[in-house]
Fold:
Amino acid sequence: FDFPTDKYSYNNMGAGLALKDGRASMYSNKSKSKLLGYFFRANYSYNEKYLLMASMRHEGSSKFGTNNKWASFPAISAGWNIDKESFLESAKILDYLKVRVGYGITGKTPSSPYMSQSRLTYGSSFLSDGDWVPVVYPSTNSNPNLRWEKKAEINIGMDFAIWDNRISGSLDMYQRTTKDLLWSYNVPSPPYLYNTIVANAGTMENKGVEVILSYQPIRTKNFSWTTSINYSTNENKMISLSNDKFAVQAGFFDTGYINEPLQIETHRVVEGGKIGNFWAVEAVDIDEDGHWIISGEEGSQKPISDQTADDKKIVGNGYPNHFAGWNNTLKYKNLDLEINMRGAFGFQIINYARIYYEAPINLNRGNVLSSVYHDIYGKRPLNDQEDFQYLSYYIEDGDYWKIDNVTIGYNLFLNNSFIKGMRVYMSGSNLMTITGYSGIDPEVNVVGLAPGADLRDRYPSARTLTIGANINF
Structure:
C-alpha cells in the first residue's frame, strides 16, 4: 500500500512505501520488447564438388535507440569436396575429404528492454501542505545511438574419412572479433542527467582450434568398438574498452564480487589483456603469530596489515586453456555399452568456501571447515583474529577429468503381436571426478567476465543412477 502512483497497477509492488516501514516484502516487475527479423538464404552446388551458401538477416529490436533499431547480418561460406575430383578416383583409402571456409556476422541485444531510454525513479519524500510527496529523479540516460553488438567470425575447416570410414574427423580454426560491446560508462553530470550511460564502445577478439577424431578399431559381425575424442582451445583478448566518445579512463575495470564481509571485486579486465584474470594480493608466507605475509608492489615481502591497492596483481585465470572429451561405444550382439568422459585444463578457481570457512574468525559467525586449523605453509594455523582475506592462497588449480556418463543396455527382440521390441538399460551420470581441487566440484562457471568462481552457497552437483526401458509396440 501507499504507492506514489496507481499507474503501475500490480507490476511494481516494490514501489509501495510499506516496504520502507518493514511491513511488506513483495516485489514485481513487467517489461516488454519486440524483435522482428527477415531471413534470406541461398544454396548452390555444382556437380556435388563446389558448394556455396550465402545468407542475410535483417533484424530490428525495440531495445535499441531510435537511430539504430535495425541492422543487417550477412554470412557466406564455401566448400570443396575434393574426394569427388578425378585426380583422387584412384585413392582407395580416401572416403571423404572436404575443405571449407566461412565468414559471418551475428548480433546481440541488451539484457534489458529500456537501456536506450531515459528513465525516472522515486526517491525520498518531502512534506508539502501536510502530505508527503515522493521526489522523482532520472535513473538512466537516453542513448538514441545504442546499437547492436556485432560479432564477425571467419572459420577455416576440413572434414575427412578414410579406410571405409573407420577413421574420420574434422578440424576447425576460427577468429572471432566482437565490436561495439555494450557496457555502462561513467559520464559527467551535467551535461548528462545521470552519471552513467549504456553505450557501444569496446572490441574483443577470440581465436582458437577445434578438433574431432573418430576411430573404429574393431568392426565385426558381433562386436564393434567406436572411440572418438574432441579437443578445443581458445585465446581471448580485450582489444579496447573505449572509443572516441565513451571511455574507461583507467584502461581497466574490476568485476566479479565476493559478498560480505569482504565485499570486494575478484577479476580485472584490462585493455590488451585476457578475460578472466584474478586480481588479488599474493600470499607468500605466514608469520610466527599466524598472520599473512604478502608480496608487495615491488616484490618485497611485508605483513598483510601494510597492504595497499598497488600490491594486487594477476594471480591466475578462470578460463580453461583446453577442453577435451573422450567417448566410447561398444556393442556385442544385443548388448551395448557407452562411456563418456570430458575435462578442462589450464585454469584456476577461487574457492569461496575456503575464504569464508577456513578463517578461524568465522567461529564468531557460524560454521567452519574441518581444515580451519590446518598448518599454513607447513608452519602453523591462521591466527584466530586474522580477518577474512581475498588472497592467492585460496586460488587453486581447477584441472579435472570426469567420467560423465556410463550407460549399459540390452535389446530384446520379441515375436508377439503386442510388443515388437524392448531395450532395458542402466545409466549413471557424474560418476567420478579426477582433480586436485579441494572444493566440492571443479566444474564451475567459465563464461562471462568473471569465470572460475566456486561460490560459497553453491549446491553440490548430483550423481544420478537411472534404470529404464524403451518399449516398441
